[in-house]
Each structure stands twice: as structure tokens, then as C-alpha cells.
Write a structure and sequence with these properties.
Layout (H helix, E strand, L loop, with lengths): L9 H17 L9 E8 L2 E6 L13 E5 L17 H14 L6 E5 L2 H9 L5 E5 L16 E7 L5 H14 L12 E4 L3 E6 L2 H23 L7
Parallel strand pairs: 6-7
Antiparallel strand pairs: 1-2, 1-4, 2-3, 4-8, 5-6, 7-8
Helix pairs in contact: 2-4, 3-5
Length: 231
């Protein structure tokens, strides 16, 4: 049976992610077949519903999703249906971030915006984009003041998802997550590619996308206008 015909929570997750696709395409964050979105359906065993590969995010249908396990293996068995090429990154975030003491992860969203693409390439040599002193930082879960700083990690892009996942895991494991509120990071960037962020549910993950994308645009435009950002 197609997961589109399943009862909730899978059907509800699909409806929420279809709406995300329409919105993010309209805001130029998920153009063409770029981006991928997922929702955690269960944790034991870890199961996600995720966008299928090569789908136009402005017109996602109910059958444009698959269920995968912790290894990214498609579970519904429909011939010819593939999950997103970056499924392993979703599985990594869903499993790793909560285990390190970060936010509970119920949804992971990935966008390809102009500003995240520009900044991720410009700041790759130092390994992060620094966001500091902005009121909008309070839109990230756990942050309660503008007087804070978040260094969004940047990773060199790769088509080898196992290798890329290993680099992300190694760096995240070096961060201090222990009893920390807010967590050290709410997302990461792939250089020349885009943003990954997450949340307890689709609404929180969506908010984190919106906050990051706003702040990336502010930083990039500030540099263009020769207004020095905080260092």
C-alpha cells in the first residue's frame, strides 16, 4: 500500500511537507528539484518519511514520499522509487542530535537559497558563518537574547554521503552539547549547496529555516553594502 493512503502520522507528515514545499518554492528557497524534507515517524526503530528523489518541490504529490530506516533504506518496497540522495544526512541528524543532548528532532528541512549558497562558499575557509547580536536569533529554540552568537558550521560538499556524514558526525561530537540551553548549533551548511536545520516538529523546523534564511540575507547584504558585520 502506498504511504499516501496510510493513516496518520505518515499521511499527516506528507500533508505538512507538501505545504512546506509550496511555501519554500514560493520564497525561492527550494527551486526546481532541489531540497529535501523529512519527518521522524518513530524512533525505535528509527523510521522517517522523506521526499522522493528528483521531485519538484512546488508540486509535491501524495506519492512523492518514501519511508526509510536508520540506514536510509526504502521500506515501502515500491519498484523504482528512490529517496532523496541526501537521505543519510537526515538519518544522521535524527539519530545524532538528540543523542548528544541537542533538541529533540521530529523534522529535518533542507533548503537551497541564494544567500546560504553565497555565504557557505565565502566562509568555507574558516568553517562557519558567524551570526551575532541580532534580535532575530531569538527565533531559534532556546535563545532568549540578541546578545548571543551562533557559529553555523560549514562543510565542504560531497556526493559521497557516507563520507560527508562521517565528517558531520565527527565535528558535532566535538561540540559541547552537555546540559546546554540553547544548543551549540541549530543547523549546518553545505558549501555552495544550502542549509540543513531541524526541530521538534515541522513547525519548529520551518521557523528555524525562516530565521536562518533571514539572517543569512542580512549578513550577505551587509557585506555587499560594505557594512561590517560583527566579528
Amino acid at each position: 500500500m502506498s504511504i499516501a493512503n496510510a493513516t496518520s502520522p505518515a499521511a499527516d507528515a506528507i500533508d505538512a511537507l507538501r505545504a512546506i514545499g509550496r511555501e519554500f518554492h514560493g520564497r525561492s528557497w527550494s527551486l526546481g528539484t532541489s531540497s529535501n524534507y523529512s519527518v521522524v515517524l518513530s524512533r525505535e526503530p528509527l523510521t522517517l518519511v522523506i521526499t522522493a528523489s528528483g521531485k519538484d518541490k512546488s508540486a509535491l504529490g501524495k506519492d512523492d514520499f518514501v519511508q526509510v530506516d536508520a540506514a536510509g533504506t526504502v521500506l515501502d518496497g515500491t519498484p523504482g522509487r528512490k529517496s532523496s540522495a541526501e537521505t543519510l544526512l537526515h538519518c544522521l541528524v535524527a539519530d545524532l542530535v538528540p543523542s548528544l543532548g541537542g533538541l529533540p528532532v521530529g523534522a529535518i528541512l533542507h533548503t537551497h537559497s541564494v544567500w546560504s549558497t553565497v555565504l557557505s562558499r565565502a566562509d568555507l575557509p574558516r568553517g562557519f558563518v558567524r551570526i551575532e547580536g541580532f534580535e532575530m536569533l531569538k527565533g531559534l529554540e532556546g535563545i532568549t537574547t540578541h546578545d548571543t552568537r551562533e557559529d553555523v558550521p560549514i562543510f565542504a560538499n560531497s556526493q559521497d554521503m557516507a563520507e560527508l556524514s562521517g565528517r558531520i558526525r565527527a565535528r558535532f561530537e566535538r561540540l559541547d552539547w552537555s546540559d546546554r540551553r540553547p544548543p551549540p548549533v541549530h543547523g549546518f551548511l553545505l558549501a555552495g549547496h544550502g542549509l540543513y536545520t531541524w526541530g521538534r516538529d515541522v513547525a519548529e523546523a520551518r521557523r528555524h529555516i525562516e530565521i536562518h534564511e533571514f539572517l543569512f540575507e542580512v549578513l550577505a547584504r551587509s557585506r555587499t553594502l560594505a557594512v561590517a558585520p560583527p566579528t
